[in-house]
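Re: that chain you flagged

S.,

Sorry for the slow reply, it's been a week of failed gels. I finally had a moment to sit down with the sequence you sent. For the record, here it is as I used it:
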Amino acid sequence: MKKIVMTLASLVALGGGGSSMAEEGGSCHFHGKTPASEKTLIDCASQRKASLVKGGKLDKSWETVKPEKVEQVDGKKGKEWKVTFRNTAAKEADKNALYVFFSLPGNYIASNFTGK
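Prediction finished late last night. Pasting the structure tokens below so you have them in one place:
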């Protein structure tokens, strides 16, 4: 009987564990101090941009916009990554560039149109 209970408990734990990890942007959370690769930053910034479009914070015209530049900048707490997207179809000239900021390991910090 004890073996059956342990087997069932294991199956329940294995079956339910995957769904709790499947949140949007969940693959863009990193530990340590190793700087993220450019590919990782582009992927995470693109996920963040898609989330902003889906949430209505960015116009649908941003959906197809690709990253223009990835660079390291000096942030409030040290070095950060800044990924720039430029949307030539943006209705407002002062909102044609989206900047997405990440810590060096690749964790999201903020997004804005000012680049600061």
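What I noticed first: The first helix runs from residue 2 to 20.

Talk soon,
D.
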